Fold these 4 entries.
Entry 1:
Amino acid sequence: MGSPHNAEDENGLIEQARLGDRYAFGELASRYYPGVVRVVYRLCGDTGLSEDMAQEAFLRAWLNLPSFRPQSSLRNWLYRIAVNATLDVLRRRTDESLEDEEAWVYPDQAAGPETSLIEKERVALLQLAMCSMPEAARSVLVLREYGSLSYQEIASVLDIPVGTVMSRLNYARNRLRELLKGDLLQLENEYA
Amino acid sequence: MHEDLLPLLNAYLDGELHGTRLRELELHLSGCEACRNELKELRLVSARLQAAPAPEFIPAGRFASNLVLSLPRRNMRNLPAQPASLAWWLVPAGILAAWFFIQTVFTLTDALTAAQMTGLLGQAARWLNGGQETIWFAAVTSLFGSQVGAAQPEFSLMNALNVLGEHLLDGFLWQALIVLLYWTWLSIWWLRRRPRFMKMENAVNG
């Protein structure tokens, strides 16, 4: 994500967008939207919310683009905004409806109409396992698995030390392994 | 299974181990079946995550078109200046160099003048005499002859004091000019820098 684009071309677009060119920003948005929305979706498990949060992240990015340092990575900056915005919403939802947990913990099982019932169940199980994880561990796991960020980049996006990234990732994968034991066994047999 | 190796196994899986640590872990893995199984399970977790289908989102092109239409106006006054060029940072260095040069010239001139006036340099610094006469003293000597200074020592003393006064005034004016230039540069630097006080983190966290 992000890296295949010509850096010079991208810097030009960023500079134009900084100066107020909406279309230059639109071009940047079309490049980074797929990655951002995918990461957000894996954080919240809700298709509609993911699109809303992606929109919110790009709006915030537009407003704060003048403070963006051109030397840093736009992709990481966008991820940072999107992750913070999403976690804020999830925290608010948890505070507002602790007793009505199903409202957001159970994800929309939107895997497409062509997906088999079993596959839908597996997807739901995975999303449920993801959503049951503490957000600190989930954010690290999502940025690694779906954002393809290095440990250093994750540390920078979440503003935590690399050692913390490692320990949270270790916790998250172990937790998932426990929660998905049966599912993983099946996957192993499929791969065998 | 070596519990303490778990974070390293994750790092190995993610391609984040390098050098000696990588070689050490690979050596350990070749002889430890429990750790190999652990790594295999971690790979399965990762594969499961990667294989999870994602829903259809709004296409990127449509998202960007809608976004462009909904972007609010931005306050351009908050636009911080671009990072200063090398030439910008050379300005204060140049001012300091000019100050140093002028100070050196004045100090040397003072020293030579003092040495010449006290006769320490003898005939070696006769060329300095040209700068030792004020306009009024030059007019007096041209009217009454060059011996007037010797005949009336108070004239020579007044001339010397006058020369010294002019010299100090020159020095003061040069220094004031340098200070003024430096403060001007400092003010411009501060005004350019001020918008950057907006912290990115604050902006990001809304």
Note: Chain A touches chain B through 69 residues (CB under 8 Å).
Entry 2:
Amino acid sequence: MSSEPRAPLKLAVPRGALLGETLDLLDAAGVDTAELRGDSRSLIFEAGGMTLVTMRPSDVPTYVEAGAADVGITGKDVLLEQSDRPVYELLDLGYGRCRMVLAGRAGSDRLSESARSLGMMRIATKYPRIAERYFESTGRQIELIEVKGSVELAPLVGLGDGIVDLVATGRTLEENELEVREEIVECTARLVANRVAHKLRAAEIDELTEKLREASRG
Amino acid sequence: MIHPIPPGTRDVLPEEMRELRRLQGALIEVFEGRGYGEVATPALEYDEVLRRGGGRAQDAAYRFFDEGGELLALRSEMTVPIARLVATRYTGAEPPHRFCYLAGAYRAVSPQRGEMREFTQAGVELIGADGTGEVIEVLQEALDAARLASAVIGLGDADLYRDLVEEYGLDDDAAAAVLERLGAHDLVGLEAELAGAGASEEQIATCLAVSQLRGGVEVLERARGCGSPAVSRAAGRLEDIYRGLEDRDGGYRVQFDFGLMRDLSYYNGAILEVYDPAVGHVLGGGGRYDGLMKRFGLDLSAAGFALNLERVHVAQIEERRRQGEGR
């Protein structure tokens, strides 16, 4: 209805593990990301008629919820952990596949021992809400220990009986003598949208969604 | 000395207060001009009364006991208090009843996300008349009076997906899971839930496509084109409202939105939300809730909306700033 010229659509792009495949996908969808692949220190780029804003994956829901970015790409793990943020989840992009798992020390039965003798397990994690929901839904009680950095460290030095963490190849677990005990959920990269932008910039967002859908199936 | 206030609350100083007052005055003038008399109700209600109303009101976040041991709650919205007021004070009176309000409401939102725990609602309730169209007109006038040139009213239908899951023959659990995914607007999860519930590929595709239908009158045709009776019925209901508005030169802010979901325990028929391109948050919402008055012992239809006054003010400032930048 409004005919005013508009700013380009803002897309939040995750830095870190998802960046490479996100840029590949954007390239496949016809958005030239050469500039983002350079060693530029800037965080904002113009490409393919959009403004690409790069940020930590865990910040993507924050920017998108507030409308500072109209659309964004981030992992399902991030969305599950921040499920109180009302962003629209439009598309499973298929890449960045990893598993959220419960892991314990290899060859040790400390997890089940604690569950038996203490009636609960002590779990260290960077994903307190996912862990809480998972154990609640399986009827078990846990004591949560939230850590920010390398969570594999926690059970090795006695902080907790096990961990809930994201595993891609399982190498980090192996190197730290940890093993997967239970799989909680599989996570991939998702396309999300701000709920107001989804209404008011419907045509642009639908077009981007279609292009990314085709590129990700490609 | 610094004396703190609780997170999610704030002081208003004279400069902002003057602007808020002007906005309040403009809104109340529109409401009163359309015959909606202003009412005030206590910020504190008996928790039991708010629970009776259901919807968001039953989740009052701030509850405490008074000296007599009664459980009190701070209201989280105004619709249920007004339903209570009508049922108590207007039992013998001839409907329709038209009321408006400017009132503080309280919700335990996370204040680190730009949401306030205490905020002001400005809205209307039309009780005892089939008045979705009238309510939308009043809302349009209110947005005009607030000088929000770009604000849009998203109009959807609360019965659409309840109908659709029935048409698909989903059992109660599957239907609830599907409606929850629709409410969260999680299309990936929605597809998985539908597939898990045994919906056909065609049904899944229809449901996903319908949830993405939004825009001008042209989407009504597209909705009818997807071949589901439930969707066609919803399109018919929305078209009726829209034609009624058009006949009275209204409808200019309305966009159809087949993906719109609000708290379903409360609404039936039309639901609406207000957006402004200048801000990422929803400015307000409402719709029709015929079942509400029955919970208070009166069999009357009802419709209304509430705007978040502070957010409307932010949108005003943002729109002004954008115009200043020549946008």
Note: DSSP finds twelve helices and twelve strands in chain B.
Entry 3:
Amino acid sequence: MSLPLYYFLTITAINILMSWALYLPYRVAHLHFLTVANMAISGYLSGWLVQGLGFSFWAALPIGLLAGGLLGWLLSLFIGDAPTFTVVIVGFTFIYITRTVIENTKAVGATMGMFGLPLVAGSPAAHRWALLALLYALVLVVGFLIHRFEHSRLGRASSAVFVDKDLATSFGVDIKKLGRLLQVFSSTVAGGCGVIYGFLYRSFHLDFFTFQLVGLFMTIIFVGGYATMWGVVVAAPLLYGLTLLFPPEVASWRIVIYGAILVAVLVLKPEGFITRRLILNLERLLSSKRKKI
Amino acid sequence: MRKKWFVVLAALLVLVAFVFTGCQKEGATKRVKVKVEQWEIPFMNSLTGPIASIGEFLHWGAERAAKEINEAGGISGKPVKVIGVDTALDPQKGVVEMGKIVQNTLVALGPVPEPVIMAAMPIAVENEMMSMTATTSLEYAEKFFPWSISWFPKTEDRLPPLVTAWAEMNPEMKSVVQFVAQYGPWPGMAAAHNVGLEKAGVKVLNPVEVAQDMVTFGPLAVKALEQKPDGIILSCFPEKAAKIIQELKSRGWKNMSRILLFSSADDASLYSTGGASLNGAIIYNYINVDVDTPRWNAFKEAYAADHNGMQPPSLSTNYYDAVYMIKEAIEKTGVTGDPKKLKEERKKIAEYMANVKGFQGLLFNWDMSGGVPTNKPTYLFEIQDGKKKLVKEIRD
């Protein structure tokens, strides 16, 4: 496989997973930007475990996942049922705190970053195949879990919470428990992504985890469609691929083009390109048992 | 008689053959059959995004060199083209672009800056292709040796003599406080400043951290002044350094020659923000814009013509010199550009560059040893009305 294709596929997978990690708490109207901090914390932790303590990547990965989940759980105790704005502020604050802690921690390279992370398999080619397989296995597993969630009582409950919290509470939905579940799940996924992200680049630098990522994932969710998980699957490769296909003359207008797409989508199709209705119609097309809505 | 002439003729023929083949001087241009119609050099740069203004003048420098080289006959007789590859400071874009570049490129320029270097350079290393990271510090570049070279000596060797020289210019200065931003190699540079101060017998006071998102600087100035320092070093972003100086002056700081700004603050935003309040402050950097040579004067004029009369910034010459170094490496190692010899010729270029001697840079000549420059000068300047006046040159 060519290197550009490999990086396109792996980074697309990371963007899908991270956008899902933002999408899922958004089902209960939480913009959970803590996920970017989770990425950085678990990523740097795994780097330190591997370089500093001699762990293998395969041992560091579950620890990174656990660290993400643990931090997500701890914070969810306080913001599990918080309003959207509070969750946003906590997320941004944690990105700042994480950056400051890393900047001052020599064991993880402080402001310089971490260099020369080892291959996760015997050769560069094996390393690439291992990461690619791992990422798409994660996409399948996380996608399956989100799909099951969306078709469960919890999924319907989260839709009710998104529309009206008070109404959902009156129906017996435990808003805090639901919010906590989604936050912990998304933080766990983000932790795993952080670990793999660093080993993909074979280095860590604080500027791998910036607010630019928040902007990218938000664009993916809102252009693709925030009401179903499939919007992310369509928008992540398109938005990332577009930037790579632009000729140099157009590339400098990239941000303008992104902005124009985002504004156009918000005005013309506020739910994004992939709506719940579209998915239902597609499901009906593929099934003879149901009638078109 | 005829036999004698025959011997003389044979001897002459041998001599001529010797001169044209075996007796080629070390370092002389090798005559080879070039296999490319045009030398293409990709330059991974940040042409858009937060540091686009820096990316623009880096690219301008590289293109200027290519233009001059082409006007003088090209590289081994073939024209050279610098191809801008925009990474927009995005590691995600950087790795894909580097993945494309390593497929068939002989040598590349960049990436710029550190986050993209860290993400993309491992790909160049794995594919054994030299990519010249000419704007980063040795501490980053050396991680990718021998497939990169450093444009700067080791921070801890380069900076202490500068700071010691500044301290010696101010013999009454007994204690110094430093403003430091936690960004990339800057804390390491701040530590090197302290070494220079200690060498000059100056007491190092507690540093004041300048957060990247900070917008008001009065409290920082108070924090520094309450330690009663005799001198100040600013190792932070340019516009923040200018605002800190304004705050210090508004709180009674008078002796401007006891303020030292580090090289990364030497940017247009320092002068546009600070204006006349910077007058008398000292700044160190690696180029001296007052050098008077035809080549440099032409560069300065061309830069001013393309940039509304501005002087070339300190990093603007780096990729200009890098393109010339590529030309020298190709011509002196007999590289042909033959795709079949890609691996071998990449290695030749990397080895040549890592140890080039007497390289004729735009502003000065220098040597490389093991990928590190050994004798580049550094300068102390005094700022007056937005311009720098040379105070001292420091060279090993």
Note: Residues 99 and 105 of chain A are 10 Å apart (CA to CA).
Entry 4:
Amino acid sequence: MELDELERDVLRELANVGLSRAATQLSELLNDHIEMTVPLVQVVPYDQVTQALQLDPLASVAAVWQSFSGQSEGTSILMFPSEDSKKLVHALVGPSVQGAGEDDLRGIEHEAMMEIGNIIITSGMAVIADMLGQEVRMSLPGYMEGNLPDILAQRNRDNAGREMQVIIMFTHLKAAQREIEGRMVMLMSVDSVQVLFERLHKLLKGL
Amino acid sequence: MKILIVDDSMTSRMLFKAYMPKDGQHELFEASALPDALEMMREVRPELVVLDYNMPEYNGVEMARVMLDAGFKAKFVLLTANTQRTVVDSALAAGFILVVEKPVNAAKVAALLTQVA
């Protein structure tokens, strides 16, 4: 699938609005300025998502995802290098977990990451839903730590063996005062994006 | 009122235009980057400049500073979903009179025009 200029622009603006809101939420959580890059929009085969995100396939990342459904479907993933996710959790709940054992600490980290992810992802998706004037239903958040190809394979079990193209929209998020750098990604199937374009065309025509 | 919207996204500019009141009271001009914006400032002399924040090369606040340094007089409004406190503070410090949260709708555009009138 090739995107024409207007379609790419539409997706870039949706990503810009959604990811900017996500950056705002992260900024409030950390009480820190979050720098974000202008979102990139690309159509890639599912198995090339890791390269498209400019990530080392062997690097360990902590990822929170939420599937969304409605007229358009897909998955939003917020990911941080594993080390950075620990710093993020510590920055938020550090003082309250002093003295916790190793296992408890791990549980608290997972719980905190899911909550952080939920706040950031949901706020980004909500603003996109508002923009399109349609309801987007969000699944409960899931959490996984490992390399990204494994995480993506796990997320794509239902489509195993099928060649699937996806649209990725992503940005780098970097906290100004801390060494914390994350990526926020929205993955949508090409079919879902077509539905989204139709909705947007109708919206613009109706105004 | 002459209004200049500066946003690298054609979609965003189209949405803003679509939600403008059709009362013949306002004239909208568009630019997607700093060079076009400066040219519009020279040619059109808009009374109101609405800028996106997150753009390649220069963000909206940086663009407004360039315009002000060049001696252009206008009211500036930031239109963004990136409403971090630091972003809002930097806009207000640069002289923006208003920050409006994206996505726009008819009510937000109407409120913006009332507030800057």
Note: Chain A touches chain B at residues 6, 9-10, 12-14, 16-18, 20-21, 23-24, 27-28, 33-34, 36, 38, 127, 130-131, 176, 200, 204, 207 (CB under 8 Å).
